[in-house]
Amino acid sequence: MIEHPDLHWNLSPVLLLAIATYAGIYAWRFRAARREQRDRLPSGGRSIRGRVRGAGWPQAVAFAGGIAALLVAVASPLDGLGEEYLFSAHMVQHILLSDIAPLLLLLGLSRVIMRPATRRLQSVERALGPLAHPGTGLVLWLGLVYLWHVPALYDGALRSPALHGLEHLCFTAAGVAVWWPLIQPVPMRRRLTGLWTFAYIASAKAGLAALGLYLVWSTTVAYPYYEAVPRIWGLSAIEDQNAGGAIMMVEQSIVLVLVFFALFGRMLRQSEEDELRRERLEDAATA
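and the corresponding structure tokens:
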């Protein structure tokens, strides 16, 4: 057992270039969307504070948070800590890649920012037919997460850099698939409405409960790879695995509660807007 692990940053040029390219494309579209809206303002667009929809500070902050989550997951010492020492650190990395980063990156998008790609995405949705359904995102999320937690695949990814990269891409794709129907930067034809939104995200989070509970209460090591790595911070392999399961359960529960609050607030705002619209129509009819 060692007390001080060898921690290092992963400054892979290919990895950093990919993230920087995506951030650059977003910054270009963000500025273009603001400029397009500014040019449409009757005042000449000298001040657009508080008047830009879909390309304001909420989108910018969310996107910056998503990029930060990606960098912490794949470039910070967390990457080496999870690959060389701790299953629980690897779980934190997977949570960032599959849940936190996709959620924030999608919140950073909007119809005006994605306008050049809107028609292409709608064409893809039409081509997918019945598969372009929120349930598909749920199936992809659960299917990919559980698939990569099969011990043979999980350990194989840790031993093969190429397979490890594919695993990370699959986790991120699963996160985008599950969050897209809720956030809908480009509106879907088959939308989640009313209580279905709550049922959808509850199913997604509860769907991982079996895996999290197993890892929390397991008494045998599921992933032999972590029996062979150096032990640090006084954690045995089984304690480390239990901690990883607890991290998964806590993160999923916190996200579920926060999303429930956000969805409830959105329903209240929509109800108020519908009421105001009805009152205006009634006043117009009376006049």
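(Above: one complete record from the training split.) The first helix runs from residue 13 to 40.
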